Amino acid sequence: MNMTGTGSPCGACKFLRRKCVRGCVFAPYFCHEQGAAHFSAIHKVFGASNVSKLLAHLPISDRCEAAVTIAYEAQARLQDPIYGCVSHIFALQQQVVNLQAQLASLKEQAAHSITTAANPNGDVQSWWQSSQNQPQLDADFHGYFGGGAEINPNTSSLNNQSFGSFDSGEMQSEERQWPFQDDLESVAFRYIHH
Fold first, then answer.
1. 3-state DSSP call for residue 116?
2. How sure is the predictor about 184, in pLDDT bands with cuts at 50, 70 and 90?
3. What is the pTM of this model?
4. In sequence order, what are the beta bridge partners of 162?
């Protein structure tokens, strides 16, 4: 009997074309239906044996988070073999800096509006016009990370920045597709529910 409870091998064993035995370390984290697709990237980047050893040495309470993290890093490493998740992290950090600047600007505008109460309609209109000129977050950012109130789980790209050289500190902006986004969300949500 296998650990999936359906009579089918787990996704990892299905990908590896081996029998899924009772106590399979992969079974709780790689379902039969989608696990093989998720595990293929993990096997390609880290190797099944290494991941098996890693999961086996972790406390059971930490394995789910480790499996999700390993899956994410493997997908990111396939997408960007040099930097993996690092380029994604830097892009998010840049978005944080941009949002902090936008917040500071809005706070300054709000303070200005409060101090100039002589013409409230003019202040609201000038605030509205200036807020329309502020850089807006890409909707894909909300959907990808689930941050904020606008969640769109059907998007599959986000504006990402790639860094040409760490020494020079130069950054190039490019549109990077993250085709594994929906897969990772399904993996993460499956683990959260278990």
1. coil
2. low
3. 0.49
4. 172
